[in-house]
Write a structure and sequence with these properties.
single chain; alpha+beta; BirA Bifunctional Protein, domain 2; seven-stranded mixed β-sheet; two-stranded antiparallel ribbon; 13 helices; 9 strands; about 40% helix; rod-shaped; binds phenylalanine
Length: about 350
Amino acid sequence: MENKIKEVKKEIVSKSNLIKDLKDIEKLRVEYLGRKGAVTLLLRKLGTLSPKERPKIGQLLNQTKREIEELLKTKEVEIEKLDKEKRLQGEGIDITLPGRKLGRGTAHPINLVLREIEEIFLSLGFKMEEGPEVELDYYNFEALNIPKDHPARDDQDSFYITKDILLRPQTSPVQIRTMENQKPPVRIIATGKCYRRDATDSTHSPMFHQIEGLAVDKDITFGDLKGILTIFVHRMFGEDRKVRFRPGYFPFVEPGAEVDVSCLLCGGKGCKSCGYVGWLEIMGAGVVHPKVLEMVGYDPEEYSGFAFGMGAERIAMLKYGINDIRLFFENDLRFLKQF
Ligand code: PHE
């Protein structure tokens, strides 16, 4: 009997080393301590022993039973602890998982074009200037040689705030503000928002952006204007573009011109995009009118200059092949993501 007890003890110790989960523990408990368990059966046999042997074996058996209970309890605690650790680990942050991507914004196509144009003119020695979007009638008309009763005032149907204050319909007033504040030589560009009372369609928007240019110095001629704008067109649209100057009227330049670039699609042969003429108009320009120089206190006998103005939306539409100006302002990500 004593040997049998020792055997049982040895057996359960070795079996307990194979325990993997709580179920294994329960199985062992039933196998040894259950109603038909090995230890229970031995305890039942105590009655068959002689009175002399009984106390000693009884004690040994009870002790063995307690030891088994303890062993199983220890195992149970161990496994519960392991389980918990595993669970916690599973709940933790797995830094090896690929993250959720946050979309990255891109520059708006109009800003891209503005930046590109700015860089071209900065590299040619022009400086950046700024003017207010809410402008005085004086800077937008009067000082630009557009007197009160001048018909050109109708051309630029403006948003008036009062009789003398309006949202600027062009960036040309920055020419005046700049010249009022500095002596020649002047070489500036000014970019910004402009506003006109135009009905919205595929080529008109009540708000748009312009880029203004102005150079004033001794002996500046129309030839300088042609040279600078040809460099600009080549850098902006490609070396193989041709530039054409047509007579055009703006009250603040004389002579004035409309500047065309050979069609970006057909190269000048004529196609639907250029209306079969082979040319696309991209800006207004000209030699600064002597009256404008006089208005800012420059001597037109001593100084001369050229000026130009273009729409950023029009340039962007030509450059990227966009056929509706409204796309710039609708903020549809499917459109904006392409830039
Ligand atoms: N301000 C003119 C416009 O908005 C463009 C221009 C600028 C023309 C400078 C000549 C010189 O149409």
